[in-house]
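Sample intake sheet
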Amino acid sequence: MKKKLPIDITKVPPEDMVKYEMAKELGLYDQVIEKGWGSLSARQTGKIGGMIAGKKRKKAQTDAADEASVEP
């Protein structure tokens, strides 16, 4: 079995940084960095996924409201 090395956050693509931000909010960041995403439980990863979905939904609503307020 290959030993997992800690994650190098400097090599994470910008589009994946939101996952790490959510992990920080939940207090799971250090665990993810040291042991990888596979060390989290299904409940923990589901919580992160739910937070990301909520954030995307909120941004879409804000974008739609901004678009509606800028009438030609």
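Comment: The chain is about 60% helix and 0% strand. Helices lie at 17-25, 29-35, 42-69.
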